[in-house]
Amino acid sequence: MFRHTRLPGESAEYLAAREELRLAEIELMRHREEVAARRRALPPGPPLDDYVFLEGPTDLDAGDEPVREVRLSDLFTAPERPLIMYQFMYGKAQTEPCPMCTLWIDGFSNIAHHVTRNADFVIAAAADPPVLRQHARSRGWHRLRLLSCGDSTFKYDMGSEDKDGGQDSTVSVFTRDGDGTVRHFYSVHPRMSPDIDERGIDALAAVWNLLDLTPRGRGDWYPSVDY
Questions:
Q1: Cβ(25)–Cβ(4) below 8 Å
Q2: 3-state secondary structure of 91
Q3: What is d(CA 119, CA 176) in angstroms, rounded to the nearest whole number?
Q4: What are the φ/ψ torsions at residue 63 (nearest 5 degrees)?
Q5: Quick check: 143 and 121 in contact, CB under 8 A?
Q6: pLDDT tens per residue, range 47-89
Q7: At 27, which helix (H) or strand (E)?
Q8: CA dist 109 to 113, 125, 151, 181, 189, Å?
């Protein structure tokens, strides 16, 4: 038995159950690593159009002008660096920022400087730059690169927007070949199947993982942009 604590009041029943749980957690960890290895072993994805995004000043507090065009290929800052993109549910039919997306991006804002040691990382939304940037200012997202998809079909092509402008959140990874060709490597949505909704990217948010450690679990709690 591998004990995590030295508390004298732990019953034999508790210790036995905790040991069974420990072994199950090890099995889960190994399965996660197997799945991650399968993800890394995906064959090259399809080449993409060099979509055009809109971007305001790097400093959120510097206003919203000028707005410049930046292509998908320009988002890679060095050879062989992958690009991670979170597609935010905001803009078009989504007239208010998604509370769930906001929770995710709140977390990303504080770890982006670690992620960008290894990969390029951006947030993209259908919302116009001033609207997106105002929400970002209200949340303190000063460490994130924020892009508007403008008039491009990017979000629709990536499956994070429908023909009516309805939005979905998506995490995508892109790569760039030596000749400059940008390829789609991997995408994941919260909805994993008709009967599994809002669970596909849970592992990327500490909030859910922390709540899952508690006796009550996550329950039916849902985040808000204003508590």
A1: no
A2: strand
A3: 12
A4: 90, -170
A5: no
A6: 999 999 999 999 999 999 999 999 999 999 998 899 999 999 9
A7: helix 12-40
A8: 8, 15, 26, 29, 20
Quote the CA–CA distance of 145 and 143 in Å, as a whole number.
7
3-state secondary structure of 17: helix
Cα angle: 149, vertex 154, 157; to 5 degrees = 155
Please give the order of strands across the beta sheet that includes 68-71. Answer: 68-71, 52-55, 146-148, 120-125, 83-88, 170-176, 182-188
pLDDT of residue 133: 98
Written as one letter, the residue type at 144 is L
Q: Which residues of 51-76 are buried (b: 16+ CB within 10 A; e: fewer)?
A: bbbbbbeeebeeebeebeebebeebb
**Position 18, amino acid:** R
DSSP 158: T
User: How far is CA 19 from its chain centroid?
Assistant: 33
The 8-class DSSP code of residue 180 comes to: S
How far is it, in rounded angstroms, from Cα 187 to Cα 210?
24
Single-letter residue type at 188: V
